[in-house]
Write a structure and sequence with these properties.
Blueprint: E1 2-6, H1 10-21, E2 25-30, E3 46-49, H2 55-60, E4 68-71, H3 76-89, E5 94-99, H4 105-110, E6 114-117, H5 123-131, E7 136-141, E8 146-152, E9 171-178, E10 181-183, E11 196-202, H6 206-213
Parallel strand pairs: 1-2, 1-4, 2-3, 4-5, 5-6
Antiparallel strand pairs: 7-8, 8-11, 9-10, 9-11
Helix pairs in contact: 1-5
């Protein structure tokens, strides 16, 4: 997997080193070359000095073929801009932006950008989000027996209907975000590439849902 990290602070540098160990190809961008010292002398990835939302810098980093981009600069506005450029213009499959104001998270999500709050982020959590190995839990409902989860539609579901993902009393698709709009689907709604799917699932059925989504 080719990953671009914009911002080489504590999170960016730690994540870069973590992903390199996992075998990722990593490029780190920062407008302050001195921050690359956090990566150590033996860093096996690439470093580029420049502004993270500059088209020339992003293309130099190989954004056209990137599998993931993580924006972890010090500004919510900058991270949002980088996220939108990556998602809207270059169609990067996985875009994660760090935010300091968690109230903005839902706005980012409607744009197809996952977020990490400054109060909850961690290198391990970002690594998990990149791996597609677990669902992104939005909230728990009622007595905590039901979870509302969010996931980028996996390839095996593209072209299939909501009905094929439904298990009465266990798994229910409640909303789909597509092209910056969110709607309530019918059983006949067809999943499309780049959809973000919101699913209500019984906690006892999470393993079954993961199996259907090909996450096990």
């Amino acid at each position: 997997m080719n990953a671009i990290i914009v911002g080489c602070g504590k999170l960016g540098s730690g994540l870069a080193l973590n992903l390199i160990k996992k075998g990722y190809s990593v490029t780190v961008i920062d407008d302050n070359a001195a921050t690359f010292e956090l990566l150590g002398k033996n860093f096996a990835g690439r470093t580029i000095t420049g502004v993270g939302f500059d088209k020339e810098i992003l293309e130099k980093a190989g954004i056209q073929s990137a599998d993931a981009l993580i924006a972890c600069c010090k500004s919510d506005v900058t991270n949002a801009l980088i996220g939108r450029i990556s998602r809207n213009i270059y169609r990067v499959p996985r875009v994660i932006s760090r935010i300091y104001d968690p109230r903005k998270a839902e706005i980012y999500h409607t744009l197809g950008i996952q977020t990490i709050s400054a109060t909850t982020w961690g290198i391990r959590r970002v690594s998990e989000m990149l791996s597609y190995n677990e669902l992104d839990t939005v909230t728990t409902l009622g007595d905590d027996n039901v979870e509302l989860v969010r996931i980028d539609v996996p390839a095996l579901l593209i072209g299939k209907t909501v009905n094929e993902l439904t298990a009465i009393g266990e798994i229910q698709v409640v909303a789909i975000s597509r092209d910056y709009k969110t709607f309530l689907p019918t059983f006949g709604s067809v999943f499309q590439k780049n959809d973000v799917v919101y699913i209500a699932v019984m906690v006892s059925s999470v393993k079954r849902l993961k199996s259907i989504l090909g996450l096990l």
